Structures are given as C-alpha cells and as structure tokens.
Amino acid sequence: MGEIFRAEDVYVKRGENLVLKGFNLAVGEGEKLLLLGPNGSGKTTFFEVVVGFVKPERGRLLFMGKPVEAESDFRLLRRKVGYVFQDPESQILMPTVEEEIAFGLLNLGMPRSKIREEVEMVLSAFGISHLKRKFTHELSWGEKRLLSIASIAVMKPELFLLDEPFAGLDERGVRIVASFLKEYDKAVILASHTELNFFEDWDKFYLRAD
Amino acid sequence: MHISEGVLPVTTLALGWGATACGLYIGFRKLDYHRMPFVAFLSAVFFIGSFVHVPLGPTSVHLVLNGIVGMLLGWASFPAMFVALFIQALLFQFGGLLVLGVNTLNMAAPAVVVHYLFRDWLRSGDGVKFVLASVLGASGAVLMSAVMVGLELMSCGGEFRNAALLVFAAHIPVAVVEAVVAFFVFSFLRKSRPEVLKEL
Amino acid sequence: MSLDPRVRIIAFFLVAVSVALSRSFSAVLFFLPYLVFILFLERVKPSHFKKLIPANLFLVFIFLTVPLREALLIFVKCNLILSFLIVLVSTERFPVLIHALHHLKLPDKLVHLVFFTYRYVHIIDEEYRTFMKAAKARGFHPKTDRITYKTLSYILANLIVRSYEKSKWAYKSMVCRGFHGVFPLYYHFEMGFKDLCFLGFTFVYVGALWARYSGLKMFM
Q: Do A137 and C179 make contact, defined as CB atoms within 8 angstroms?
C-alpha cells in the first residue's frame, strides 16, 4: 500500500505557544484515521499545516512521496487534498447550493456537463437534492454542515481532512456522513474531541493539550 | 442618503458614473484576491449600517458608516460601497441603478479622503491623535457626502437651492452620531483587535 | 414569462435611460403602456410595489422645496424607473442576474465581489440580530444615552472583528478548492425566439418615442 501523506517531527508555534511538538503522522492510500484530542490540542493547526496555511518552525512534510516546501508544492497538493473547515459558515462562498458545490470543480476545469452530473450525484449521496436551488443563507446549521462536506467530497480528494464534521448535525446527518466516509475509497483524517463509536475499526491518533 | 431616480439631470448622472468608474478602476487594481473576502465583509457591514437605528432624542437616525468603514478600506471603498448600493438598489429599490454612479461617488470619495488624511493618526500610539482621527474622520466623511448631495441637487437648477440646504442640515445630527459611534468602535478595535487597524 | 436575464437588463437600461432623459410629462407618460404590457406578461404580484415607499421618502425633500410642477415630474419619473426595475430586473433570482451581468462583460473582480457581498450581507445581518437579541435579553433598552451608544458601537465593532476573522477563513476556502484568480461561472443562458421578439419590441418602442420627440430635442 502506497503512502499518501507523512509529517515528520513537526514543530508549530502559534504566537508564543508551541502547539505541535515533534509531531509525526503517516497516512497510507485508503487509510482511515481518527485524530483525537481536546480543544486546543492542535488538531486544526495540524490541518492548516497540511494545506500550507501555517508554516511549521521545523519538520518535514511529504505528499505522495515528494517533499512539500514551496508555495507551488502546496498549490499542487491542495488540488488533491480536501479540507472541511470546523465552521461551515466561513467555508461556504456562493449564494446558492448548486453553485457552492460546483465552485471547486469549475476551478479544476471540469467540463460543465460533467459538473452537472457530479453535482446531482453528490447532492443525492448526502440526501440534500431538495436543497439544490436554495440560497445558502436559508439553510439550517445542519444543512450548512452537510453542504460544506458535500462541496469538498465532490472534488474526490486523495486525502480528505474533516475538522469536527459532526458538530451540530442531527442523527440523520451523522448517519449520512459516517456511512459516506466509511465507504470513501481514499484516505481520510477526521479530527474530533470525542470518541466516535461508529468508527471502531479506524486507527486512532491522540493529541494532548498542555 | 441615497438620491432617488429621476431627480438629477443626465449630465450629472453621467459625470457621477464617470468619476465612479475611475474610482472602481483604481480600487480594483489595488485590490488583491486575498483581501477580497474582507472587503466583501466590510461592504456587508456598510450595507447593514443603513438598517441600524440609533436613537437621538425623540427620533432616531440610521448610520451612514462611510467614514468608519472607509477609513479601514481606502481605495477599496469604491468597490465595496458600489456593490453594497448596487445590491440595495436591486433588492430594496433604495436609490436606483441610474443614480448608482452618483450615489457611490458621494459615499466613497469622502471615504478615500478621510482614509488618507487620518490613517496614520488612527494607528498612532498618541491618544489625542487617535480620538481626533476617529471623530473627525467619521463625521467629516458624512458632511462631505452631504455637501456633494447638495451640489448635485443644485445642478438641477436654482430652485433646488432650498432642497440642497435642507439635505445638508439633515446630515448634521447624523455626523454627530457617527462621531460618537466611531470613537467607541475604534477604541474597541484598538484595545481588543489592534491588528485590524495595523493592516490599513 | 421566463425571459433571458440579459435581455431583461438591456431592456431595463433602454427604457430607464429614456425616462431619465425626458423633460416633459407627455414623454414620460408615453412609457405607461409599456409598463402595463410587461405587467401583463410577467404577472408581478402587487406586493412588490411596496418597495416604492422608501424611495419616495427622499422626494419629500423635493416636494417641500421645489415648485409643484417640477416636483410632480420628478415623482412620476422616479416611480416609473423603479417600477421598471421591479418588473424587469428584481423579479429574477439574484445569482442569475449576477451571472447575466458577467455574461454582459462586467469585470471578473466586480462580479466576484458582488457574489461574496451578497452572501456576507446575510451573515452580518444575522449576527447583528443575534447581538441585539443578546443585548436585549440582558436588559438593553435603546435611548439617547452613553450606554446605548456604547452598546451599539461595540456591536458594530464586533461585526468588524468577526468580518476580519471570517474573511481569513473565506480566503482559505477559496484556495483550498483550487481558486486561481478566475471567477468560475455556473449558469449559462441561451437567447430564444421570444427573447429576441421582446428585445426587438423594446427597441422599436423606445425608438418610436425618440422619433416622435425628434431625438434629443425633447430633453432641452
């Protein structure tokens, strides 16, 4: 099994505090990982390091075997890594649901007719086909959450990062997202502050706050 | 204060559009994509400002915010205020599309002026300069807008002189309210989020 | 009737500019049949015209100070132009209109900013309401005093701080989804036969008015 992503001995400072100290983590192709830790333990910071928003003080990142350092490396990496933010409100950019989902695919240069199909498919996979034409500001919190996950899922990332994706979701939403992630055939890292009992078979990785 | 459709002569409308087009050109050229979301958010704050009613004696006034938001935006005031007024015109029929050029100019030109006049004072450690910058910047921008509205009304002909004076007078209490609000807003930002002011 | 949004925008500007240029009642009233015609086509709900009220507040200044005949002409022109805006433009869904403007060659950055601002207006509006509720739940009662001004200002300052923080994440969201400086457009339109008919009719109507008042003479 090939390796998708590896972080070696990563140190990250936020202001005066060291958030990550000698952090090591590796994800293989199709591997599923739970990143567990209390608030402030560096889960979000780690995701920001992966996509290049936060530059580590020290350490090395490898994506598909190649080191990631320059901004141009990160630009290529971001086309293949999907990142669902903790706050869907600041992730959603477009006024309507279908445009929001199409945004990433249009940027990737997919032909329009193909995009239409993909949008339909992901909408039905997340059980939100009825919201297609709705304005994003009319959605409930849970619907915004589903949309923010669907709009990344539609890009079929090689590595799927999700930051507390279940916060504020109702039971139906949790079931939809959990079964989608279980069946997703590529690598997933899911950050959560609580143990999630429906992912028993996933590897767990603990972060400590201090 | 938005001027309504059908009031101004066509030459004034055209001049307003011309000046606003120049402002937009400069504003967009200086506006990088990474600042775009911030400008859009402040445009939204400017938009909502017209719905914030501040009690004043027996009545209330609504905020204009072109000075307060403008000092943070500089040349980006033109794009930000143009878009806010454009959406207001489409959704609520405030102002209108033909007078959009004039209305944007009235809001954004004073905003650019106070940004360059006062941004150094606003960032300075000197408390007196800071207070002067917030108070004069906010009220100055409102009064400048009022003068511009007045002049544009005068361009309709001599019989609009009283209308112009009346509009200007109506802006004086607004300018006072904005000055007080600006003092509190910028003090808050300076204390709790100085980085917002540093990036001016 | 579903018209191409680009056709709506062009038709609006044609008639609105003509009304704005007119200096006589007869020229302005010439457009009433055209308005009635669109009303008949579009079946606009009367409630849409409630939006005319705030626009007329500005005209109070005019009525107070300007000779009545002049003020009446302004009143008719203003309401006519805004009525055209309501029936031709505002009835279309907002994102569709913005796409149409982009297809009419408005610059990329401008269209982008309109999209973002439209979305953030709703976010800021909701936050403002939430802050006001929170303040009122703790006994805030607006009147002309220091505490009211301070509270309202701090709410406003908080909106600016939230804007600052959320905008950082919004840019990250663009970057994460492959944004590279070109605004992606989703909706595309095709002009059909009825669109061309409507546009042709509008041109002829406006042209007839210009001919009748022999071009620019009517404006002098």
A: no
